[in-house]
């Protein structure tokens, strides 16, 4: 069984962005440029927040559209990015129906969740958790 | 491909509204000297010559600045704005959270300087290196600042990574205490930044960015981050500001007789229960929200369900952010003890983009002036009576419309209005800025008077009063408050939320700066705090601040505080000492 980041209840989210900053801090950098998790308001803060994570699809559309096979489907669900193969075409971004693939402008390649769960450790309100892919 | 920038940014973006041009300058010189935030903003404002500017003229530049802790550490969530205030005529300094500081930082800037004025309404959109001047003629005159936010939200990219600072009608109509609203519920509230935007015909400033910035000591950075995250989430801060939020203060302050009520005729409000933090949370709270980079989430949103008058079983829910300060100023100060009506008043102030504190105090003065016959009902147009929230809601619109001389005067602040109509003894402004919600004792009022922005957050005199059964000599109070204010210059240069002041002690700040490549000992920071304090107060004095002309409204001596009746002599001695010290500090 493999695990992924799952949203427990997006209504618990306060929009602090600690998870995004944590994801970026995997590289010991300060910012949002390398985050794989995305929090935004649902059309204004009064409507609450949208928590966008990679759902680790069993049959991932992002991998299907990759012309270079740079997104390797993982056994049990999800994908792994092979950066040397990636040509930065951005098809994967468009293919993901959740908008869960952000772009790393610096290297001009997608940011793909590694299912490490580092962001979960920094969510103060239990919005996200690590869960086995069902 | 984007260029990699260091976390300790030195880039300052200049935006010239007159010529519709923008450029970036490397200001390593100033960053190295002042860290960022208020230290940097004051230095840049001095270069701009704001102290000589007409506050509403094109020559009054606005400086927004962030600092080394924004984005880097928890609760590093504020942006400072420095300008010449159209309300007081001298130093304008205002802080806001929301998404502002991380958006500016991750767009790659430590500061943004707004110069000049546009001929026709514009909004400026900064998306990292791209700066666009967009026509805002169609947005000018819209009745709600919320709708303006909504329109821009749809039109601009990068949701979640951006700030949308905008003004409402109050800013357009140059009300001297108009605010700039950001992310619908946070504000550069005090001292009239909204009027400056209005005068510049700048409807909004959008900034977005999602850069990743390089840290010199990567391992050290993650370690320090973890310590600070632990401190900010495990400390009682979370409980205090998250659970009930700042309105938790209503009942305790009322109990000790420190809750300004009906223009401070009293320190106790008989209907405080109806607007308490507990009552609001139990009956109206629907959501909490946070500023970017702050796990505490102190923003409390209430929902009020309103029926449509012409259709049965049809409702709309309006979401309103409530905090202690608007609860005091639009609640107890006006005798409004009904939560629903309080929320309606806050919503109205939010829609038109006024500073909630100044608005409440201005209307409280107007109510008493009417009561005493200094002004007539034909001046106020509506009959202002304590607790009559419906009348106050209309008066808020009138403040923006300014249909007669009275409202034009009131729109310049209570200081100015009382000079024209009388009643200065109960015009509750200090240094020209309407008072915050604390009648805790002499230190609170001394703090308002001597603070650089005449705010309770300058030096926390309200807390000084509450922590002591007996106060020392007034000279000592002034020395202590000035020391507190000086240290806050460092916090405001970082720029952390002042709710985090208990975490960011000098030794912690020194340690947390190191991995970011900034070496400052605790002594260095102390020295820096006074240097920034001096530069800031010099700017204030050069802009026209005269400490010998500080007016103390008699009302504070008439209404008993938790420290008993405040003695005028005590306050005068404090001011005497302050004048001397300020002179010593500011002299070359």
How are the secondary structure elements laid out?
The complex is a heterodimer of chains A (134) and B (588).
Chain A (H helix, E strand, L loop, with lengths): L2 E5 L10 H8 L3 E3 L6 E4 L7 E4 L8 H5 L5 E3 L5 E3 L9 H5 L6 E3 L4 E3 L6 H4 L6 E5 L2
Antiparallel strand pairs in A: 1-9, 3-4, 5-6, 7-8
Chain B lengths: L10 E6 L4 E6 L1 H7 L2 H12 L13 E4 L13 E6 L6 E6 L3 H7 L4 E5 L6 E6 L2 E6 L9 H11 L6 E5 L2 H4 L7 E3 L3 E3 L4 H7 L2 E7 L3 E3 L3 H17 L1 H9 L5 H7 L20 H7 L1 E5 L9 E9 L7 E8 L1 H7 L8 H14 L3 H16 L5 H4 L8 H13 L3 H6 L3 H8 L7 E2 L2 E2 L7 H9 L5 H4 L1 H7 L6 H21 L11 H8 L8 H21 L12 H4 L9 H19 L2
Parallel strand pairs in B: 1-6, 7-12
Antiparallel strand pairs in B: 1-2, 3-4, 3-6, 4-5, 7-8, 9-10, 9-12, 10-11, 14-15, 15-16, 17-18
Helix pairs in contact in B: 1-2, 2-21, 2-23, 11-13, 12-15, 18-20, 18-21, 18-25, 21-23, 21-25
The helix content of chain A, as a percent range, equals 10-25%
Helix content of chain B: 40-55%
Question: Which CATH-level-2 architecture of chain A?
Answer: 2-Layer Sandwich
Assembly classification: heterodimer
Order of helices and strands of chain A: EHEEEHEEHEEHE
Please name the two chains that share the biggest interface, counting residues whose Cβ lies under 8 Å from a Cβ on the partner chain.
A-B, 36 and 48 residues
Examine the coordinates and then state which fold CATH places here, giving the name of the CATH topology of the largest domain in chain B: Aldehyde Ferredoxin Oxidoreductase,  A, domain 1
Count of strand segments of chain A: 9
Main pleated sheet of chain A:
2 strands, antiparallel
- CATH-assigned homologous superfamily of the largest domain in chain B: Aldehyde ferredoxin oxidoreductase, N-terminal domain
Q: What is the overall pLDDT average of chain A?
A: 97
Instruction: Please write the CATH class name of chain A.
Output: Alpha Beta
């Amino acid at each position: 069984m493999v695990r992924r980041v799952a949203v427990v209840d997006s209504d618990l989210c306060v929009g602090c962005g600690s998870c995004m900053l944590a994801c970026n801090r995997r590289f010991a950098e300060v910012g949002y440029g390398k985050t794989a998790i995305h929090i935004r308001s649902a059309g204004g803060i009064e409507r609450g927040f949208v928590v966008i994570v990679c759902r680790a699809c069993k049959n991932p559309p992002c991998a299907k559209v990759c012309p270079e096979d740079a997104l390797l489907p993982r056994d049990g669900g999800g994908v792994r990015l092979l950066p040397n193969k990636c040509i930065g075409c951005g098809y994967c971004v468009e293919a993901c129906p959740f908008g869960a693939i952000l772009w790393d402008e610096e290297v001009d390649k997608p940011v793909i969740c590694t299912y490490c769960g580092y962001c979960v450790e920094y969510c103060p309100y239990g919005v996200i958790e690590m869960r086995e892919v069902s | 491909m984007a260029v990699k920038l260091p976390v300790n940014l030195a880039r300052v973006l200049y935006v010239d509204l007159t010529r519709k041009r923008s450029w970036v300058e490397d200001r390593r010189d100033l960053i190295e000297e002042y860290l960022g935030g208020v230290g940097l903003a004051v230095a840049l404002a001095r270069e701009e010559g704001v102290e000589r500017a007409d506050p509403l003229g094109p020559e009054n530049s606005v400086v927004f600045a962030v600092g080394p802790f924004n984005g880097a550490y928890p609760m590093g969530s504020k942006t400072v704005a420095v300008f010449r205030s159209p309300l007081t005529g001298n130093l304008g300094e205002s802080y806001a959270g929301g998404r502002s500081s991380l958006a500016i930082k991750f767009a790659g800037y430590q500061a943004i300087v707004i110069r000049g004025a546009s001929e026709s309404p514009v909004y400026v959109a900064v998306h990292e290196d791209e700066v666009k001047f967009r026509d805002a003629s169609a947005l000018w005159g819209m009745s709600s600042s919320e709708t303006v936010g909504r329109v821009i939200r749809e039109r601009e990219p990068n949701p979640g990574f951006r700030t949308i600072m905008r003004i409402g009608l109050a800013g357009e109509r140059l009300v001297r205490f108009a605010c700039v609203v950001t992310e619908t519920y946070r504000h550069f509230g005090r001292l009239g930044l909204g009027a400056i935007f209005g005068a510049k015909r700048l409807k909004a400033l959008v900034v977005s960015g999602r850069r990743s910035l390089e840290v010199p000591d990567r391992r050290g950075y993650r370690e320090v981050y973890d310590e600070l995250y632990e401190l900010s989430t495990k400390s009682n801060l979370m409980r205090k500001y998250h659970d009930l939020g700042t309105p938790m203060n209503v009942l305790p302050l009322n109990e000790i007789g420190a809750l300004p009520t009906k223009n401070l005729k009293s320190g106790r409000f008989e209907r405080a229960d109806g607007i308490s933090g507990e009552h609001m949370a139990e009956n109206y709270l629907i959501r909490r929200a946070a500023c970017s980079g702050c796990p505490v989430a102190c923003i409390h949103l209430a929902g009020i369900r309103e029926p449509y008058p012409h259709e049965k079983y049809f409702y709309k829910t309006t979401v309103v952010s409530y905090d202690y300060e608007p609860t005091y100023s639009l609640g107890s100060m006006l005798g409004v003890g009904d939560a629903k009506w309080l929320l309606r008043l806050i919503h109205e102030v939010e829609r038109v983009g006024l500073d909630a504190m100044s608005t409440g105090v201005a209307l409280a003065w107007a109510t008493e002036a009417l009561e005493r016959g200094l002004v007539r009902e034909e001046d106020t147009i509506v009959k202002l009576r304590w607790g009559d929230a419906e009348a106050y809601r209309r008066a808020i619109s009138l403040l923006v419309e300014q249909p007669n001389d009275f409202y034009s005067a009131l729109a310049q602040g209570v200081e100015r209005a009382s000079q024209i109509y009388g009643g200065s003894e109960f015009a509750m402004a200090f240094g020209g800025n309407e008072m915050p919600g604390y009648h805790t004792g002499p230190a609170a009022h001394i703090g308002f008077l001597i603070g650089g922005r005449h705010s309770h957050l300058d030096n926390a005199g309200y807390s000084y009063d509450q922590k002591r059964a007996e106060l020392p000599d007034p000279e000592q109070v002034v020395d202590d408050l000035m020391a507190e204010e000086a240290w806050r210059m460092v916090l405001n240069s970082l720029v952390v939320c002042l709710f985090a002041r208990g975490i960011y002690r000098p030794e912690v700040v020194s340690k947390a700066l190191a991995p970011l490549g900034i070496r400052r000992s605790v002594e260095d920071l102390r020295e820096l705090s006074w240097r920034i304090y001096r530069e800031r107060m010099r700017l204030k004095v050069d802009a026209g601040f005269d400490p010998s002309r500080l007016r103390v409204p008699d009302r504070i001596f008439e209404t008993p505080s938790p420290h008993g009746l405040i003695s005028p002599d005590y306050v005068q001695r404090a001011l005497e000492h302050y004048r001397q010290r300020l002179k010593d500090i500011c002299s070359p």
